[in-house]
Amino acid sequence: MRHLPKHLRPRWRYLGVGLEGWPDADFDRGAFQREVWYAAQNLVGDAGSAALDLSVYGFAFEDGAGYAVVRVRRGEVSRGRAVLACVREVDGHPIGVTVRGVGGTVRACEERYIRRPPELSEENTVAFEGAERPAVARDDRVDVRVESGFAGATGHDLN
Question: CA torsion 108→94→136→64, rounded to 10°?
């Protein structure tokens, strides 16, 4: 079987996506891919999600932070971004999804939007709501462990 000529092959764009969750969140590429497909089906329907053809290429997530590279058909970038904005949780863990940028190749997308120095996180004990509590600090954000899970805070919220 012969390959299609270059002008007939599908064209792709790659979305550099930042992922942020609580420090105890743990999921893999497959779970994130499944949530992206469900969000696409719910937002644009079966035919629309087939037209987008969203696929997760690169993926890394640990200690509550990570990234993904998501492939979308050229011309469908805005709908692909809308679908990613609808992803709120993966495997029961709440997650924030941010599209950092769009590239024409996986390599360009990773170099421009993904390859940043990792955020340093450290575990401390902080005074929060009148009690000493364990917390994970990342840059200017602090995730404080409370009875029901974690609470997001900044340095101004801590006593």
Answer: -30
Instruction: List own/partner pairs for 131-136 with CB under 8 A and 24 or more apart.
Output: 136/23, 136/63, 136/64
Give the span between the Cα atoms of 125 and 138, in whole angstroms: 14
Whole-model pTM above 0.90?
no
Which burial class, exposed, middle or buried, applies to 10 when counting CB atoms under 10 A from its CB (0-12, 13-18, 19+)? Answer: exposed
Instruction: List, as one string, the DSSP characters of 35-62.
Output: HHHHHHHHHHHHHHHHHH--EEEEEEEE
Angle of the 29-52 helix axis to the 77-85 helix axis, nearest 10 = 140
Distance CA 49, CA 33 (A): 13
Q: Whose CA is closest to 88, among 43, 153, 152?
A: 43
Confidence at residue 143, expressed as pLDDT on a 0 to 100 scale = 81
Distance separating alpha carbons of residues 27 and 25, to the nearest angstrom: 7
Single out the residue of 27, 113, 25 nearest to residue 70, CA to CA.
113
Within 13 Å and on the Cβ side, how many CA atoms surround 158?
A: 21
The pLDDT of residue 45 is 94
